[in-house]
């Protein structure tokens, strides 16, 4: 890392290598952290995995997404921690440790983009690159009380980035405010389908039904006074939709990451072992059923949103849990969170997370989900709505 001190343990302690930046440009004056699944010239790519780090050569070029930010003037300050192979949501890496959540030091920071979220929340960099497959930008943004975006799937290059599940993987960003997030995202993409100045707001009742009273109170404080149409987003029900997500993500992982796990004989920590086994056991017929259901869900979401619709959506079901939580919390929290996170992921839609209030002393964010290709205008809409007095 290139910063002097890292009290929140969010950067990988690699020997510092200077990475060229344009100096001038739209991101001049901003510092940049990069999740350690992206190639950065002069560094190995560790992916939170000692086996992958040992097998990695020193990279000679940057991933295109990183290059674009550097060419726009951002100054690189280090590679950030990630959950192993980006295949977890908690930010706790058994090999390299757990970054400290600046907003709630006794709680998980969220992952897998743990280091990037913490670095931004702690003020150690202004923007940070993460990745979001099942929620790896959105969850830590909510948990650390910062802004984050999962973009429309496929609009930002993932060349020279470790794969997890290709039809879900996206390049996301973190920032401490909407203006900076918009400034950085504008370097990486343009809107192909911008929202109107006054989008059609929708309140997803079947997402809100998954919240407890305290969480719903935070949501209502952010969005409750806004005129919005009440809608449902799970045409086949929450559990059927979540099963579709698990099936299709596992089908991707079976191709994208399980072969490395098996061929390298890497030791498997709790969590990854079961997910790898489940992906490997998935049949082609089961995967095809999942893909068909996913296509139907995507079409339904496209019809619901149209060109002007925006969901006023919860991000996850709760604030981050404590680091010393019992094992049953570790086993169940991920599934409860992903029943909400899977909505944007399944349909490949952009979702912007913004800070809200706290639940039990820890941050709990809210979000907007918009039509595909509306990413930049969705950030603008989030900025406008966050400025509306509660």
Automatic annotation (TrEMBL):
Any idea of its EC number?
A: 3.5.1.4
UniProt cross-references to Pfam families, sorted A to Z = Amidase
Record keywords: Hydrolase included?
A: yes
Which top EC class is named for this enzyme in its record?
Answer: hydrolase
Keywords of the record, alphabetical order, are: Hydrolase
Q: Which domain of life is it from?
A: Bacteria
Q: Does the keyword Hydrolase apply?
A: yes
InterPro entries in the record, alphabetically? Amidase_CS (IPR020556), Amidase_dom (IPR023631), AS_sf (IPR036928)
GO molecular-function terms, A-Z:
amidase activity
Q: Where is the Amidase domain?
A: 23-377
Return the protein name: Amidase
Species for this entry? Sagittula stellata (strain ATCC 700073 / DSM 11524 / E-37)
């Amino acid at each position: 890392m290139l910063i002097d001190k890292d009290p929140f343990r969010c950067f990988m302690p690699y020997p510092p290598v200077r990475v060229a930046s344009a100096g001038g440009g739209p991101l001049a004056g901003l510092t940049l952290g990069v999740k350690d699944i992206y190639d950065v010239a002069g560094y190995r790519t560790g992916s939170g995995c000692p086996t992958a780090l040992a097998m990695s050569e020193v990279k000679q070029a940057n991933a295109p997404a990183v290059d674009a930010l550097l060419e726009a003037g951002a100054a690189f300050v280090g590679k950030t921690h990630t959950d192993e192979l980006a295949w977890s949501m908690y930010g706790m890496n058994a090999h390299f440790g757990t970054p400290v959540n600046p907003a709630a030091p006794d709680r998980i920071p969220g992952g897998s983009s743990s280091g990037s979220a913490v670095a931004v929340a702690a003020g150690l960099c202004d923007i940070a690159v993460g990745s979001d497959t099942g929620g790896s930008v959105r969850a830590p943004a909510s948990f650390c009380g910062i802004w984050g975006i999962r973009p429309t799937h496929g609009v930002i290059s993932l060349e020279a980035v470790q794969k997890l599940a290709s039809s879900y993987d996206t390049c996301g960003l973190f920032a401490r405010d909407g203006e900076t997030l918009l400034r950085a995202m504008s370097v990486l993409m343009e809107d192909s389908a911008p929202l109107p100045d006054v989008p059609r707001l929708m309140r997803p009742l079947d997402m809100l039904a998954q919240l407890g009273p305290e969480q719903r109170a935070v949501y209502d404080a952010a969005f409750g006074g806004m005129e919005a149409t009440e809608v449902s987003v799970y045409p086949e029900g929450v559990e059927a939709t979540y099963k579709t997500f698990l099936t299709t993500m596992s089908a991707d992982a079976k191709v994208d990451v399980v072969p490395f796990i098996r061929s390298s004989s890497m030791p498997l920590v709790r969590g990854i072992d079961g997910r790898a086994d489940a992906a490997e056991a998935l049949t082609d017929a089961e995967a095809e059923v999942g893909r068909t259901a996913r296509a139907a869900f995507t079409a339904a979401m496209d019809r619901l949103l149209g060109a002007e619709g925006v969901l006023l959506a919860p991000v996850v079901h709760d604030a981050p849990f404590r680091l010393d939580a019992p094992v049953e919390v570790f086993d169940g929290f991920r599934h409860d969170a992903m029943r909400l996170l899977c909505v944007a992921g399944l349909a490949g839609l952009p979702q912007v997370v913004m800070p809200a209030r706290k639940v039990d002393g820890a941050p709990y964010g809210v979000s907007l989900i918009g039509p595909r290709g509306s990413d930049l205008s969705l950030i603008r809409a989030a900025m406008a709505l966050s400025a509306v007095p509660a």
